[in-house]
């Protein structure tokens, strides 16, 4: 549970930082066009650009790697729907998915029986 919460927080943090640094880059461009080219405005643009691209990559990495596992975890815990068809149709090579499904099945069996 703590792991899933941490992944969600990292995804949100990456997304917010991406948009924040995009705004920083936008402010830098405004400084360049309105106040002329100076070292500070160019530095603000470069910092905003580099960090926005970096945080976008982090956000997309966490989204692509973990979103399927998070959705399956929510499906299994909220709706208790971990049928065999779902297990066979999804990516069983993901160790996170395998761990979540086995853990949820074990918990569901303890609750139901």
What does this entry look like structurally?
The structure is a single chain. With 113 residues, the chain is mainly alpha-helical. It has one domain. The protein contains 4 helices and no strands. Keywords: Membrane, Transmembrane, Transmembrane helix.
- Overall, the morphology is rod-shaped
Number of strands: 0
The low-confidence runs, each spanning 5 or more residues with pLDDT under 50, are 84-90
In which range does the helix fraction lie?
A: over 70%
H/E topology pattern:
HHHH
- Strand % is under 5%
Mean pLDDT across every amino acid position: 62
Number of helical stretches of at least 4 residues: 4
Decide which structural class fits the backbone. mainly alpha
What does the largest sheet look like?
Answer: none
Whole-number total of structural domains? 1
Q: Distance N terminus to C terminus?
A: 23 Å
Rounded radius of gyration (Å)? 21 Å
Features:
rod-shaped, mainly alpha, 113 residues, single chain, 4 helices, transmembrane helix, transmembrane, membrane
Which SSEs are present, and which pair or pack?
Layout: H1 2-35, H2 39-78, H3 84-89, H4 95-112
Helix pairs in contact: 1-2, 2-4
Entry summary:
Keywords: Membrane, Transmembrane, Transmembrane helix. The chain crosses the membrane at residues 7-33, 39-66. The chain has helices at 2-35, 39-78, 84-89, 95-112.
């Amino acid at each position: 549970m703590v792991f899933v919460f941490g992944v969600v927080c990292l995804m949100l943090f990456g997304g917010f930082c991406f948009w924040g640094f995009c705004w920083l880059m936008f402010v830098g461009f405004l400084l360049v066009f309105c106040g002329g080219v100076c070292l500070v405005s160019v530095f603000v643009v470069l910092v905003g650009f580099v960090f926005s691209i970096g945080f976008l990559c982090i956000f997309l990495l966490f989204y692509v790697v973990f979103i399927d596992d998070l959705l399956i975890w929510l499906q299994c815990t909220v709706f208790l729907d971990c049928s065999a068809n779902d297990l066979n149709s999804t990516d069983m090579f993901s160790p996170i998915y395998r761990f979540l499904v086995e853990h949820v099945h074990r918990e569901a069996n303890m609750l139901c029986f």
